[in-house]
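Hello support,

Our group uses your service weekly, and this is the first time we've seen a run hang past the timeout. The protein is Tellurium resistance protein terE. I'm not sure whether the cause is the sequence or the server load. Input pasted verbatim:
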Amino acid sequence: MAINLKKGQRINLKKEAPGLTKVMCGLGWDVAESKGLFGLFKGKDFDLDASVFCLTNRDKLKSKSDVIYFGNLNHSSGGITHLGDNLTGAGEGDDEQILVDLTKIPDDIVKLLFVVNIYKAKQRQQSFGQVKNAFVRLVNLSNNKEIARYSLLGEEYDGKTGMILAEVYRDNEGWQMEAVGKGLMANGLQEMTNEYY
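Update from on-call engineer: The timeout came from a worker crash unrelated to the input. Re-ran successfully.
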């Protein structure tokens, strides 16, 4: 059974899923309904973009190619593949998926930071407070079993336009996962990467 992570909670992936080598990180969300003069109406489409920052032991990116997102779908190691951009969040289940082969992650990359930002948030006057049912989950690709899930409460992130969802990192015990859930005021992905150079 999958673990429902709380903010700041860590799990040992080796212990929770022995022999784990390939994982899928799925991200999903719905747009909250707004109350208008004539009752409920659906808000505008939200384009949330999931990305992975591949960080060194100094929490730094070596180059732009270590940011995997809709404009750079594959890491040069072959270890990370972004399956493409969902522009609206429509539909059930995962809206965006990122595949990771942990055996192919180069030794000098010790942390995979899973982040999400709202595309053109400032222009569209959107924030995570208008998003509901947002989650990030990790699935073992060898058996398609969900290992862990972290659900975000939108109201807590009102005014935030970027988010560090979770990190998968390695230490002496192997690969671990931590639910971070840190909201940011960021005008786009570029702004989010700046502090990691």
